[in-house]
Amino acid sequence: MVRTPEHHLSSARSAAVINVANAVNSTLELDELFELTLSESIRAIPDADGGALFLYDQPSGLLSCRAYVNFDEIVEQIRLLPGESFTGDCFKTRTPILLSDRTEILGYPSPMRSENRRLLNHSMARHPSNNSYRAMSVPLITAKGECIGVMTLNGFAEKGTFSVSDFGLLETIAGLAATALERAALYEDIKIKNQIFKSMIDYQQEQLVNMNSGKGPDVMLEQLGAVIGKPLSLLTVYGEVYNSSSNPEHPKPLHEYLIRDGRQLLGKLLISSDSRTGLRQTDDYFIQQSLLFFALEINRRSAMRQAEHKYKTELMDHLMKGVLTEDFLAKAESLGLDTSGALLPVAVRIGNVGAVQPVDQLMKQNEIASFLELEMSRAFPGSLVVLRDQVYLLLLSIRPEADYKGVYHRLSAIAEDIDQFSAVTKGGAITRFGAGRLVRRIEKLPEELQSSIATLKLMEETGFSGRIADGSQFLLERLISGSGKEVRSFIDIYLEPICTYDREKGTELAKTLQAYCRNLQRPGQAAKELHIHTNTLQYRIKQISRLLDADLADPEILLNLQLACRLAGGSGYLQ
């Protein structure tokens, strides 16, 4: 017995969905709609020989047969309790059910009441086996999340089978049918009904055609934006960001809709507004329909992502090994990394390190990790995110004019959002971001990537209370336990900006800083060693303070500068 179908639509099956959509949207008469839904579903699934559609009657609390194919008319007398037989169980649990053979059907743990069994046997008397060899039921769930009934298909021929893809197709059809049923019951005024009905048909057909022709989410998003008249953004867990043409430069989110396939998060639809106008009732229909189409399209493209992930992992593995091939930039850009500005390596871990989690908790962790990728694509377009050994390695694309403190603030906000999201989903995740330094020269990238991973490890080992840190917050620990490479990294943090400035401007700030650190209590002696006036010395110290974005009056910073100058003098760094 299978309860959860996969969702893969081939071109033929997509065409079948279009045919069903055309059929079920061709009438607002409920009885005709029931029959069309069943007949078109059976036509779309080769090994389906018959079926019945049951609707839930609120006053009686029973499921009644409203349409049937290849049964005797006595089947209309069947009244099922929620939970009775696999059809009633499908309604009660709102879960699709696939029974692959006769044994599973006869041995289903929730049997029919005797009167209903008698009626069902009578209705199948025309078939030699007096039973079906296979069956599948899917709930009819409206766009508002209300389960209104169940559609069950049967196979009366001994040969044949219902595949998982047949199951997924029937669920898609059921979604379309449920929406059509809800719509038919909702609009009572004929004139308004016809006008809205036509626009819905046109929209649904065009979205299906767009999906089937591979035009992509951007075209589908443009169509939705035109219908509801609001600026839209679509974000996927694969780092894709789409905006409608009417999207303002600084949109104000009015509503956010999560795009899901079962429990898996696929993306997010953002609807913007100037807050003076809200969403109409009909807008919600188009949005809910689009969420289905977006989910199908994102799933369709996921196979391409598998190959892309492989290339991303290979690229990151080369960086981890310190290998920068000649075609590194070309490969990185082909994978979507924007290398026109600076890059910031960041290592991220979500969740308790080394904790043994039950299956449900692991599923929550995957959802939270998807949320991380979604937020990164939104905050830092053109970035690269790769999962490696339970650690997310990020190469964030940063604009050349970006302020590092501003970037740091955005990362802190994302870390906080992830923690809040995990609290909502009761995942209990603890998010840590270990950042390297901003890289403007590509040859520095492997070193800073390793630095970000080392920082993340130190955050975990030392019980660091913050969500985000960089290597400068663990300098002493790295120096104590590190190698010559760590010493060089320490020197770079404090002296490289000054040495770079000296090379570019022909100044002597590094030499000035060394003399100043040697003569902290005697600035006059430092000026004498440098053969400059004390005012010039003070001017250069202010330049150094500005370049390092640090207050040299801070004892801790001054101590680190002294240590860096001493280490640099011993290593020949300044020669």
From TrEMBL:
Recorded superkingdom: Bacteria
Domain GAF: 29-191
InterPro entries according to UniProt: CdaR-like_regulators (IPR051448), CdaR_GGDEF (IPR041522), GAF (IPR003018), GAF-like_dom_sf (IPR029016), PucR_C-HTH_dom (IPR025736), PucR_C-HTH_sf (IPR042070)
Family, similarity comment: Belongs to the CdaR family.
Protein name: GAF domain-containing protein
Species: Bhargavaea beijingensis
